[in-house]
């Protein structure tokens, strides 16, 4: 340990162990995280979804610390995990795009979590990153019930440009798949021919 590390101890963001000042995670957390990808794949009518791992233990912690802990620098590490999944399976995508953060989480986090990762992945694969989807908050109307308001408060997506080609779509956590399905439908409406979906974790 050098002098700086004694005065300003730097701790692993996931387990709290002391680490070098230039690091974000300790070696044991890193080696556990890099064990993937799991052989997990879900077939849908218009697209297949590939996952890096299950939404549990270290991977879950990593995603939560990245999204809710304001640790945006973790985007590089999460990109590397997703790249391991993307390069394992054959694809002929020309572009990368992502499921955008909702307006309210953009406000509270200050960054588009999957947008940062998409840019890093595009750079590594040397393919173009294009923002096609945007999220918007539907406005509530007078006289609506609480449940109607809650249904509207759920994020909704729209496409902001017409695109032609084959796309990689990335997202963080896949639970029911409804968000990804909505996004794939919008991409198809915008003109996209083929979509390959890669998610960091399967809940
Ligand atoms: Zn650790």
SSE layout:
Blueprint: H1 3-7, E1 10-11, E2 18-19, H2 27-33, E3 41-43, E4 48-54, H3 57-68, H4 75-88, E5 95-98, H5 103-109, H6 113-125, E6 128-129, E7 133-136, H7 146-153, E8 156-159, E9 165-174, H8 178-190, E10 192-202
Parallel strand pairs: 4-10, 5-6, 5-9, 9-10
Antiparallel strand pairs: 1-2, 3-4, 7-8
The chain binds zinc ion.
Protein name: ComFC protein, putative
InterPro entries: ComF/GntX_DNA_util-trans, DZR_2, PRTase-like, PRTase_dom
Family: Belongs to the ComF/GntX family.
What is the string of helix and strand elements? HEEHEEHHEHHEEHEEHE
At CATH's second level, what is the architecture of the largest domain? Answer: 3-Layer(aba) Sandwich
Oligomer: single chain
- DSSP strand count: 10
In words, what does this structure look like?
- This protein is α/β, with parallel strands linked by helices and 203 residues long.
- It has two domains: 6-35, no CATH class; 37-202, 3-Layer(aba) Sandwich (Rossmann fold), CATH 3.40.50.
- It is 39% helix and 24% strand.
- The mean pLDDT is 89.
- The site of zinc ion (ZN) has 8 residues, from helix 2.
- The site of zinc ion has 8 residues, from helix 2.
- This is ComFC protein, putative.
- Belongs to the ComF/GntX family.
- Pfam families: DZR_2.
